[in-house]
Input
Amino acid sequence: MIGPRGFRITLTWKLFLSHFIVVMAAGVVLGAVAYLRIPTALQHHVARMQAIVGADQGLADDLRRSFIAAQGQILTVAGIAALLATVIVGTFVAWRVVGPIRKLTAASRQIAGGEYRELVSVTGNDELAELARSFNRMAAALDKTEQRRVELIGNLAHELKTPLTTIRSVMEGLIDGVLPAETETFLDVQRETLRLQRLTEELQELSAAEAGELPLRLEKMNPGLLVRRAVDRLEPQFHDKAVQLHVDLDDSLPSVSVDGERMLQVLINLLGNAVQYTESGGSVTVGCHPDGNGNVEFFVADSGIGLTSQEITRVFERFYRVEKSRARSRGGSGIGLTIAAHIVRAHGGTIHAESEGPGMGSRFFFILPTVINP
Ligand code: ADP
Output
């Protein structure tokens, strides 16, 4: 706040002045009461003493004057002492209150400059300490978001680099005449172009999902029907790879309110991964049943390569692939499960994975709430 003639009234000054005004007001009230009331009270007291000890009027007047003079002196000394105390206490309190606020201001400037690791030291348990704690929590959240942003750019660059490098070297080979201009060479370029196209489509979906902007056209659906549709779509892949596909459905399931196409996308992603990460001769079971809490649990269980406990916690992270080179060579970008998790959550559901460990197969589950008013 800027006061008259540009003088800046800082919080320190405001606190100091507020103490000063309170003490001055108390002093004025005390002085006024003493000035108005003490002479009358003294008069009454001296008259009683005169009656008891029989002192003469001159002595009584002298006593009254001396007492009032002493009262004036004491009040003056007390006023000066109170003023000094105000200066000391006011300065101390202002320093205690303004100090943490200054630290917060300095830290917030650092954050505005992109330095998210700036934390404020917290002592005590009062509102200012709570404010500093909230500030530190906010700084940590911003730091994490910034790390994710940097990571995202790095991942993206990496994902784009591999197919672009392949396309470039094939084209250079063709131009230099090192590679033959035959179908196989062009198919290589087409494969990488398709991968780039799929990646951009997935990224578009991911960004919409992360912004909470995936449009859902909800309809009441039988969960078993969803599973059967996904199975119909992926059966040829299972057949080609000689992986057995079992369907385990509970026919008396209540309806779920879902966007059919999106849910199909989730099931196809899980089934696609299951067949991808299961060797020939293995088996996959897909199905759904009541979860015991009035919801419907969908599951995809495979006898494939399995996951470690650390991998399980990370498979839903964007761009996460357990075996990066192998997953990429199979066309995976590590975004499918992230989008699947967003879709399930957008339906009010939950998703998780389980595995007994590497080589022991994996199970993916997602739970959807049932339609309350059928
Ligand atoms: P991708 O497109 O790479 O498959 P996902 O997001 O669908 O991406 O999966 C992320 C990673 O999780 C995969 O790269 C793989 O390492 C692991 N994963 C997913 N499903 C399975 C599974 N059924 N068995 C073993 N690992 C799996």
